[in-house]
Amino acid sequence: MDRLDRFFGVHGTALTLRSERMGLLASNIANAATPHYKARDLDFARLIGGASSGTPLTTTSSRHFSAAAEAGSESRLRYRAPVQASLDGNTVELATEQLAFAETALRYRSTLSALNGRISSLTSALKGE
Amino acid sequence: MAQGMSLFDIAGRAMSAQLVRLNTSASNLANAGSVASSEAAAYRPLKPVFQTMFEGASGKATVGIAGVVTTNAAPQRRYEPGHPLADGDGYIHLSAVDPNAELVEMVETARQYRNNIEVLETAKSLTLETLRLGR
């Protein structure tokens, strides 16, 4: 299992993170007209950096906070700084969100094709072709 | 895609919220020229109240309708003694709808509805591509 994870590299994590980011961007687009909604986004570079460096924090006491709990909370989210906030306190700027959504969709596709390449080389190795 | 609220849930609920907004705009515009015989009976514009619905701590959120409220915009009064609906002093009460504002609202609603459709289409095609992974 561990070897298989290593074979797929960072792409598995990247796919999950990208899908999560798309959920957040879709939330922003859905709340484009809700007063006082603050747009949020994933700090993608930091998360993927954490996933690829891959040194898990060990806890020596049962009272230590685990690193996984920190990563799972809202601390991975960042509020978007708006170019110009609207008067009703909403910070969603549709152009920014649509751009980020399109970019994430494209990157999701590229991660999919990278995974597809790995899978097809694995199958050809298994078949011995 | 991920567990919990999917892209389809988020965009779908946002679309129904925008549809409620479009309905209120339509009903306001339809009543833009309506006339009443008293100030209390005059038409006042309806507005939906949007509310963010968060899904736990995941950061995902969709939008819901907290309610449709009647605004307290004051209806205009016009002196027309010959009008069949004129009150005792000869005034009729016009609806308090601002047609220009309603038209702008309608265009904005249509655009945001369309944005959510785009999200749905992208989510659908990406899900299908993920299902075909490794074939």
Structural class of chain B: alpha+beta
User: From the structure provided, what is the oligomeric state, counting identical versus distinct chains?
Assistant: heterodimer
Rg of chain A, rounded, reads 19 Å
Mean pLDDT of chain B: 90
**What characterizes the major β-sheet of chain B?**
3 strands, antiparallel
Helices and strands of chain A: which structural class? mainly alpha
Order of helices and strands of chain A: HHEHHEH
H-E order of chain B:
HEEEEEH
Alpha carbon gap, first and last residue of chain A:
24 Å
Euclidean distance between termini CA atoms of chain B: 19 Å
Order of strands, main sheet of chain B, comes to: 1-5-4
Number of separate strands of chain A: 2
Beta-strand fraction estimate of chain B = 15-25%
- Helix segment count of chain B? 2
Classify the beta-strand content of chain A into a percent band. Answer: under 5%
Write down the Rg of chain B.
22 Å
User: Which chain pair has the greatest contact?
Assistant: A-B, 36 and 35 residues
Shape, per Cα inertia axes of chain B: elongated
Name the average pLDDT of chain A.
Answer: 83
What does this structure look like?
The complex is a heterodimer of chains A (129) and B (135). With 129 residues, chain A is mainly alpha-helical. Chain A has helices at residues 2-8, 11-30, 44-53, 67-72, 94-127; strands at residues 40-42, 77-79. Chain A has a two-stranded antiparallel ribbon. Chain B has helices at 7-30, 99-131, and strands at residues 35-36, 46-54, 61-70, 76-79, 91-94. Chain B is elongated, with a radius of gyration of 22 Å. Chain B is built from two helices and five strands, in the order αβββββα. In chain B, the strands form two sheets. In chain B, strands 1-5-4 form a three-stranded antiparallel β-sheet, with no helix packed on it. In chain B, strands 2-3 form a two-stranded antiparallel sheet. Chains A and B meet through helix 2 and helix 5 of A and helix 1, strand 2, strand 3 and helix 2 of B.
